Amino acid sequence: MTTITHTPASQIKNRERTREHHTSREPVVSIVIISYNYKRYLPFAVASALGQTYSRVEIVLVDDGSTDGSREVIASFGDRLKPCLKANGGETSANNTGFAMSTGEIIMFLDADDALHPKAAEEIVAHWRPEVAKAQFRLATIDEEGGFIGAVVPSCAAIATPEDIRLSVRATGFYGWPPTSGNGYARWFLEEIMPLPIGEFPDAPDGVLNAVAPLYGDVIAIDQVLGYYRIHGANALASRQLGAKDIQRELAMRTRETRYFLSCAARLGFALKANPFDSMWFLERRMALLRLAPSLAGKGESKWDLLSRAFRSPAPTDRSLFTRCILFISFLIVALAPRRLANRVAELRLAPGSRPKFFNFALRQFGSGVHTWLSASPQPVFQASGARTSDSGAR
Description:
This protein is an alpha/beta fold. Helices cover 43% and strands 16% of the residues.
């Protein structure tokens, strides 16, 4: 059962003053790097944080019990960062620790296998306002060696305004967000919900933070690539097959997040027009799971029932009509095509690591519709929104 930490009425009443207090004209930006056995990539992540053009930056580095020599790398940076060498406790535990160590008014969580553009913090500050709960930007995908792959996340063609995002959340319960390293959060917002309960959310805490941010304040979407999201052999996004158990795990994770989101929405009086569990995000994955491994699908799950729900599902407000048509056609193919074809389409849609290189060329050449279809969701099926996936990651 999801546990919600209730904010005292006196704190809710004074929230506006709290926002003003926590957002100075030149706020400190805390970049919290989370690492677990990423010695190979850690120097690049730290260098990207140290190389920010914005001067008021502090760097906190949480090593979550690495055994690969990462701690020697951390020591080499001396007093240029604030290290925390802790026993392994999971990704959420590391994020909770890093946030507690930070002092900034804006918090960025950077996965140790990713990197930031030098102007990432500067651009966030330039767009910041007291009422902002979160700012996000696009991430370019890179390979193991740092070469560009081609995809950009999130892939929404028309950059969303805060009001667009609220409309999307009211209509569907979702909006397009990047993985961990593409977000900057207001301290006052994180203080409302952190520390997150580790038992409820042991991994992928960014999904919880991103889901509920629009309930607390504005979400600013910056239409620039300001970070680099690495896809490599040590994270699950590198998989070239769509695993039914991976889908099952992600559905379970997103179900917990959505229940938490619904609890927060009810407590804050945020009215929703539809049940998020009836959104295409859930229906696509439930259909893929039903076709890949019927024994793992929900009890009594039927493709005809899922098709009926899909026809009634609220349309994503951040997608063009063309894109929505592409998404629905792919859903129909997964539902009705022979299993081999259905599985391949599901892989192309939901497993980025399965795509041939020419698909990335199509991504660059044929525009937002193909781009959106390929960049499947705010959080990929193969979660890479942390410093831990197969080692233990865009709807």
